[in-house]
Amino acid sequence: MENVDFKMFDNFIQSVLSGLPKFLGAIGLLILGYVIARVVRAAVRTFLAKIKVDKLADKLEEIDLVAKSKIKIVPSKIIASLIYYLLLIIFVVAVTDMLNLTTVSTYLTSLINYLPQAFTAFAFFIAGLLFSDFLRKVVYTAAKSIGIPSAKVISTILFYFLFINVFISALTQAGIDTEFIQSNLTMIIGGIVFAFGLGYGIASKDIMASVLAGYYNKRLHEGDRITIGSVTGTITSISKTDLIVTNESDSVIIPLSEISKGVVIVHQTKDNKN
Q1: What are phi and psi of 261, to 5 degrees?
Q2: Residue 125 and residue 193 share a domain
Q3: Residues 124, 188 within the same domain
Q4: CA 20 to 30 Å from 69, out of 35, 81, 95, 236?
Q5: Pairing mode of beta strands 225-228, 264-268
Q6: Is residue 157 part of a domain?
Q7: What is the CATH number of the domain that holds 232?
């Protein structure tokens, strides 16, 4: 019995001793990988900082959504960290292969294969976010320039509509099933847009009529003496939505939409006065 126990113990010691070099080699490889990953991370971050990649963060922080979230985005740090963890995982895979940990190695290999897809999705999300904000600014400027009220509200709604679509597309790019989100979100957004469009269209029809009338009444100029309805006087100011007619006693603000509805009598133009 003692001989059997001694033999089992001896076999155990032999197996430990035979596997010890491989284990120590794996530990050494892991330490080497850690050191290399840290060095590469520092080098990449320094390089990206020198070529001023972090200026992208300034653009992102101009977006209200990002600014309100108080999330500090530093592209050089994010990219360097991604490379750092990628190198670490690669060395861990090598270690697991060395130790014949097949299951762990297979899982980590699939993770490495997924990382480019995740990075592409993240890059798409950032680009989409910047593009959405760019369109928001364009719409806001255009709406403001033609005198449409609530220009900020309209541009903000457009931004969030685009942002949600970009977010869902990024999730899809990352391989996440978004069918349930899309089916429900589409109905919600559709209802909101319809309600807003209907309410806003009814509320702003007179203003839009004034804007359109402005394009058809460019023959009127400041200094012209006109009669519109019961008002007779000299045009002292013209905007994109109304004009001011001044006579001996009053100054009357007349929406341009009223011009398109009736007859305008021009008694004397500015050029004729001169």
Answers
A1: -90, -25
A2: yes
A3: yes
A4: 81
A5: antiparallel
A6: yes
A7: 2.30.30.60
Residue 199 belongs to domain spanning: 120-203
Distance CA 35, CA 16 (A): 28
User: What's the rounded Cα separation, in Å, for the pair 178 and 10?
Assistant: 58
Assigned domain for 108 exists: no
Cross-strand bridge partners of residue 252: 245
Predicted pLDDT of residue 191: 63
- Domain co-membership, 171 together with 227: no
Q: What is the mean pLDDT of each run of 10 residues along the chain (274 residues)?
A: 53 58 79 90 87 74 68 77 86 82 80 81 85 86 73 80 84 77 64 61 57 59 81 82 82 76 70 55
Closest CA to 40 of 78, 86, 67, 80: 80
Q: Are residues 197 and 228 part of one domain? A: no
Quote the pTM value.
0.55
- Mark 33-67 as b/e (b = at least 16 C-beta within 10 Å): beeebeeebeebbeebeeeebeeebeebeebeebe
82: three-class secondary structure by DSSP: helix
The single-letter code of the amino acid at 215 is: Y
Integer CA distances (angstroms), 218 to 117, 221, 240, in order: 56, 7, 10
